[in-house]
Design brief:
This protein is an all-alpha fold. The chain has one domain. About 45% of the residues lie in helices and about 0% in strands. It is globular and about 30 Å long.
Amino acid sequence: MKFWQIAFMFKWVTAEQLRIAVKTDANPYGKITPEEYEKITKLEF
């Protein structure tokens, strides 16, 4: 999660792009959980 947090903080990725890295039923190979996404972006997944 640390990498994605830094990437978002420095605007290397947008919140929309970061959604692609979230582990879901449709994307079982995601790198972060929906809860981590919400911590990083302060947006609801």
